Amino acid sequence: MASAAKRLEAVPGIPAPQIAFDGVTLVLGGKTIIENLSLGVRPGEFLCIVGASGCGKTTALRLAAGLYQPTSGKVNFDGQPMRAPRREIAIVFQDYGKALLPWRTAAGNVSLALEAGGMPSAERPARIEELLRTVGLPGHAGKYPSEMSGGMQQRLQIARCLAQEPKTLLMDEPFGALDAMTRQGLQDEVLSLVAASGATVIFVTHDLDEAIYLGDRVIGLLPHPGRIGIELSVNLPRPRDQLSTREHPEFLRLRRQLFDFVKATEQ
Amino acid sequence: MTANSAKALVLPLAVLAAFEVWARATHLQSDSLAPPSEIVMALFGAFADLSILAATRDTLFSTFAGLAIGTIIGLALGIAFGIFDTLNRLMEVTVEAIRPIPSIALLPIALIALGFGYRMEIVIVAFACVWPVLILSRAAVRSIEPRLMEVARALRLPPAQRVWKIIVPAALPRIFVAFRLSAGIALIVAVTVEIAINPLGLGAGIMLAQQALRPDLMLAYLVWIGAIGYALNVLLVVAQNRLFGRAALSGDGA
Amino acid sequence: MNRAALLWRVASFAVAAGFIALWQLIANLKLVSPVFLPGPDRAWASLVRGFSSGDLWSKLAGTLEHMAYGWLAASIAGIAIGAIIGSSRTMRTYVAPSLEFLRPLPVSAIIPVAIAMLGLTQAMALFVIAFGAIWPIMLATVHGFGAVEPRLYEVARSLQMSRLAVIFKIALPSASPDILAGMRLSLTVALILSVVCEILAGLDGLGHWVLLSARAFRSADLFAGVILLGITGYVTSVAMSLAEHKLLAWQAAQR
User: Fold this and answer.
1) Residue in C with minimal Cα distance to B8
2) B-C interface: how many C-beta pairs under 8 angstroms?
3) Contact criterion met (CB < 8 Å) for A104 and C250
4) Domain count of chain A?
5) What residue ranges define each of the domains in chain B, with the CATH number in brackets?
6) Which helix (H) or strand (E) holds A220?
7) In this complex, does chain A touch chain B, defined as having at least 3 beta-carbon pairs under 8 Å apart?
8) I need a surface site. Which of A34, B55, B80, B169 has the fewest CB within 10 A?
9) Which residues contact C126 (CB under 8 A, 6 or more apart)?
10) ipTM higher than 0.90?
11) Between B10, B112, B191, which is nearest C214 by CB?
12) What tens digit of pLDDT does each residue of B108-124 get?
């Protein structure tokens, strides 16, 4: 099977992938977590990865982030091999409670990314305020993460990631721990933030509806070892809408297809 | 586990070996340092003439006597303060006024009141041991499941039985943690008193060795004192694990 | 609620005053020889006399100086060494067990060694105080660095933060509750060792003052010195609490 990356390159008129997995295998502690994974993500694409727990979807994300190095194969970013994490790639962790600095206020947590990017301290406050407003946290700059709800903390983490001005946003089940209402609100906000920034997104989730609702493309991974089992293009109109999109016949068709796939893998 | 403990030994062994080689190569003549081999010889010598054993006995006697007295007083006060909130609140200022006095500052008072010897050392050790036991046992009693106290009341246990049958057993794991901390403090205070002024025990032994310009013997005492401190700690940790399981260790944070 | 707390406080002070009155009574009735036990009136008079003549001021300053220098040196060195050991897995495996082994050593046992090396000098006292006070700080730092949330290190990596920035912006603040607890413990150790060193080496300070007073059977001066040492212990520990409270405000929010 030709790798997805090569397939994408072969088609004229379609830009080269921003992130490309080429025959990536990862062995951790004697266990093959991911085997021969090839995958290309175009600039500005919103790619969702779904699969049963233990299928390696989070691991794939960490490979894309440069937090892991493949045992064999290559992960390329803009045509360059990924040897370490880089600031153009921001990662939103699922456990926001652990990924925020508890000793810094909301403003301080956003500031961390600006400091790392070398922004002069005089310019930071305005930018921080702007970012907090963008994620819907105006007026919470002085609060510590522990004084915020789960949804607010995740917004804060997203604000910090946006402060990196990332070309790619990696999101690891970012809304997995949130209640349904908060989750839907954040889904729409992420969509509009991404549309505004033009960032490429890889979004890992175990929620099939969420994957179809958000993505341009959905990939389902098979477990033990992790490999691609299904790949679906989502041709739903944008901007998406919580009611009409979810009732769209195409949505229901994709949902059915994905559902059958997941059910088959569980047997 | 074994690989890690082997790694743990690398540094101390390397330091000792390097020191030995250096001392021999330079024909070390010093009032404060001696090569490890001579320290070991001095330690054997001190064992052979029983001097270090007598000193150990004296120090441990003061340590444990002070620890026992301090623990009993601390425990009695701690349990009383834990049960009777009124008493605790009324005594707060008094306790907070006495507690910060560094135990060693009592040394001159104990000295003029009791003279040199075991008694003054025991008093100072006991004073130092009272506070951790008091504070931790008070906290332990307060944190007893209220349901247990209700049971005690429902059974109409008289106060003395309530203390012995409910409160002490329920608070025992944390009280033992306090005891373990106090035991470490007791040894430190005993040795410190001996080094500062009291002419008995290991502390006096190490001071005498220093004044006699016997660095080998002085360092042998230092090693031995360290070994006793370590052994006491290990013994109490093991006892705590045996008696109460690992759960008790969580009380350390208190 | 606040009013009740205030009333309890007042009652508690009254009880303490009662104890002082009892002490006065015992002294007045000479139940204990006045050679050993001065009344609070005589101890107070000695305090006032000592401060107005400036004698006690200089003794107090001496003790505070020993304590502060030793403690500060221990804090700086303890945090630095602890950070080096704690931020490297290799160092933790090879060095930390030796530290754990040395921890229960009664630190005062190092005094004769320090005397042999440095004599009965100010330098000896500072060395001993710093050596004694470094352990709680260093061990707390090692522990605190080892307990940093791994996710935060990943955040740091994805932000491409430098090693120095990771230490100062992630590891140190994360370990700060442990470090401050260690520094608080060390404060007590520093005070005790200051007193011991002053007694042994005859250095200017409250330790020396109380010993001389005891030798001369000036019990009022002796008690004045001990009370002052108690106040020193109390004030330094309150100051430390305030600093902790201020620096760890984020932790209070967490609860």
Assistant:
1) C94
2) 164
3) yes
4) 1
5) 39-253 (1.10.3720.10)
6) strand A217-222
7) no
8) B169
9) C66, C69, C70, C73
10) no
11) B112
12) 889 888 889 899 999 99
